[in-house]
Design brief:
Oligomer: single chain
Order of helices and strands: HHHHEHEEEHHHHHHHHHHHH
Radius of gyration: 23 Å
Number of strands: 4
Distance between the termini: 34 Å
Structural class: mainly alpha
């Protein structure tokens, strides 16, 4: 009885916290070790995938069957995408909810923004859109909208994405920079991860609503028999969303801006529009190359802080979730232009979707090991999030929960 009261009133709080901290450290180390192994396997796979010669038909800024994997080398947080995707896949009723969100966001844009149509204002954007999508061999119909407010541009939706651009930004750019501006957002469609971004948006919306079960029965057309299951899924996802999904949305979203810049330069076959656009973002107006050089130097200093773990990309994203991070993007773009990936892809030496698909079928053991690591990282990451929540709240671990072998 005394021991029960002692535990209830926190008499051994220091020991519980020490156990939690030790377990958190073990899990974090296990995640890092598996993450390093996963990145090594992925790098080895990528090097084996490059063709001996140029891809047929790749010339003049056209890259047939280009796979997004070409841009993934060295991306430190690529594992976040795999982990978060697995979490979303297991979320009950997720596809139905995301489909409803797609329709709602499209209806909202039709109600509030101007849709670009043939023969209307800014109709040239439609022609540029089709050229850019065709250049990266992306077969998709992406509606374009213009917004008049200052909330910025974005790619919206999941299965049926569309692009909302800011008219004030367009008007401040020359035609080539406008094409670049459009290309960076079409790049998000090419690289994907829209399901992750949409799921985070969905959870952010639902977290603001007072009644989850009421929303299910009134607005989403759920079958009554699975309403309770989905409602419980919301409660689980709230915790996960605040930890891993939220981090993925912010960090991967920011990093994807970097690779969208790279893709846009490849499609336009000219880096100058990118430099003018990023200067406009950071400086507020057009300026000469000397200003752009100063912006790149800022970005380089920031990048070194990130490399040294002096600052956290996640924290930067939290401070400014809609910020453009123009200086960091400028430095990253110049690094890409000076490296070997840019000329290699321009010359047609890149991984195609077909080659990647065939490789995965022929190397099933390697793919199974990669998938196994991804699944284990997902499990450990969820445990890490739970331990972090316990440390923050001071809650005791459940009986039998400690220790666990990572």
């Amino acid at each position: 009885m005394f021991d029960q009261l002692k535990r209830a009133f926190g008499g051994d709080a220091e020991q519980r916290r020490a156990n939690l901290e030790a377990e958190f450290a073990r899990v974090s180390a296990a995640i890092e070790a598996r993450r390093e192994t996963l990145e090594t396997l992925r790098r080895n796979r990528l090097h084996a995938l490059f063709p001996d010669g140029a891809v047929a038909g790749s010339s003049g800024g056209h890259y047939p069957d280009l796979d997004p994997i070409n841009f993934e080398e060295g991306e430190q947080d690529s594992w976040l995408v795999s982990v978060s995707t697995q979490i979303i896949d297991r979320f009950p009723g997720g596809d139905v909810l995301l489909s409803q969100l797609d329709r709602s966001l499209r209806a909202f844009s039709d109600a509030n923004h101007f849709r670009v149509v043939p023969g209307g204002p800014y109709a040239e954007l439609l022609g540029w859109r089709d050229e850019l999508l065709g250049a990266c061999d992306l077969k998709a119909e992406i509606p374009l909208y213009l917004r008049a407010d200052g909330l910025g541009a974005e790619v919206v939706g999941n299965a049926a994405p569309f692009v909302v651009l800011q008219r004030g930004v367009l008007d401040a750019l020359d035609p080539d920079a406008r094409r670049y501006y459009l290309a960076t957002f079409l790049g998000h469609v090419f690289f994907g991860n829209l399901r992750i971004f949409s799921f985070h948006r969905l959870m952010s919306i639902l977290d603001k609503l007072p009644s989850m079960s009421g929303l299910i029965t009134r607005g989403l057309g759920m079958l009554p028999g699975i309403g309770n299951t989905i409602s419980r899924g919301f409660e689980i996802a709230r915790t996960v969303n605040n930890q891993l999904i939220r981090r993925t949305n912010l960090v991967v979203g920011m990093r994807q801006k970097v690779i969208c810049d790279r893709l846009a330069v490849l499609l336009l076959e000219d880096a100058e529009p990118a430099r003018r656009f990023l200067t406009q973002l950071a400086y507020g107006s057009t300026a000469g190359p000397e200003v752009y050089s100063l912006i790149c130097a800022q970005g380089e200093r920031l990048n070194q802080q990130l490399v040294n773990n002096e600052i956290d990309l996640h924290m930067l994203s939290v401070i400014g979730p809609t910020a453009q991070f123009a200086a960091w993007r400028a430095f990253q773009l110049e690094e890409f232009l000076e490296g070997d990936t840019y000329p290699r892809i321009r010359e047609g030496h890149y991984v195609t979707r077909a080659r990647l698909r065939d490789y995965r079928q022929a190397h099933k053991t390697l793919e199974d090991e990669i998938n196994r690591l991804v699944a284990r990282i997902a499990e450990l990451s969820q445990r890490q999030a739970k331990l972090a929540a316990q440390l923050a709240s001071g809650d005791a671990p459940e009986e039998g929960e400690l220790p666990e072998q990572p």
